[in-house]
Specification:
alpha+beta, four-stranded mixed β-sheet, 8 strands, disordered N terminus
């Protein structure tokens, strides 16, 4: 039965050039990208761009694009089971993952410092007005010990996630406007 339908379909398609009327124009209409992909006969592995987005504790998002050769879907999905699929198209997929760490930028060149108005801030390099990465909260400079104030003016290197958390926790107790119980 399949063979008969196949022969009829091939016969009808071969007669198409002879009968180009409006009744047959549906064959030449544009199809969606997905329909075209479904019609293609794929031989061998599928190649696709995979974009990996890493979202760090400090808010930084990095992107890495790799060309994947997909031999089996099971292996492909197993490779990215720790990632969340956020977007996809016929030739790419975007995966995102929240990292329990600070970004490589902060590790390499991040410094805690203070702005002129007393806001705890992360700088790209030693504290300056123009290289602010992220601001947190305003510090009551009247409560702040002079040694801690000097540390912030010089810049406190971040280097690790633990150091990042430690500095934030230390200076939270000096937040302007909050009353501390002694």
């Amino acid at each position: 039965m399949r063979t008969i339908w196949g022969l009829l379909l091939i016969g009808a398609a071969s007669l198409y050039p002879f009968f180009q009327t409006d009744a047959f124009n549906f064959i030449s209409m544009d199809t969606s990208v997905y329909a075209e992909a479904a019609e293609k006969h794929i031989e061998g592995p599928l190649k696709m761009d995979v974009i990996l987005e890493r979202e760090y504790l400090d808010g930084e998002v990095s992107q890495e694009t790799i060309e994947e050769t997909i031999w089996t879907l099971e292996d492909f999905w197993a490779e990215y089971d720790q990632w969340q699929l956020v977007d996809m198209d016929i030739d790419y997929m975007v995966f995102r993952r929240k990292m329990d760490d600070i970004s490589p930028l902060l590790k390499a060149n991040g410094y805690f410092g203070i702005t002129e108005d007393g806001t705890l801030t992360i700088f790209n390099g030693r504290p300056q007005k123009t290289n602010i990465i992220q601001s947190f909260f305003q510090i009551d400079l009247g409560k702040l010990e002079s040694t801690k104030c000097e540390e912030l003016k010089k810049g406190i290197p971040i280097v690790t996630k633990d150091r990042y958390v430690e500095v934030l926790e230390t200076f939270k107790s000096y937040t302007a406007g909050e009353k501390q119980a002694n």
